[in-house]
Design brief:
Largest sheet: 2 strands, antiparallel
Strand order of the largest sheet: 1-2
Structural class: alpha+beta
Radius of gyration: 10 Å
Number of strands: 2
Helix content: 10-25%
Strand content: 15-25%
């Protein structure tokens, strides 16, 4: 996931394609679900498949 934008969201990219701008963990989980990855919200921060850029998942 990209660093937080000035508006407060993060671009979510899967396989090189930007899906949308996520504003919270629920958005991230939903976008990843649509991409075929079923995860629980509490697992977003520790999932090794997610490359956090800039600040970590808490922002």
């Amino acid at each position: 996931m990209h660093p937080p934008s000035l508006t407060g969201g993060r671009r979510v990219r899967v396989d090189g394609e930007i899906l949308r701008l996520a504003h919270d963990v629920r958005d991230r989980v939903e976008f990843l679900r649509r991409a075929g990855l079923e995860i629980e919200p509490e697992d977003v921060a520790s999932l090794p498949l997610i490359d956090w850029r800039g600040d970590g998942p808490e922002r």
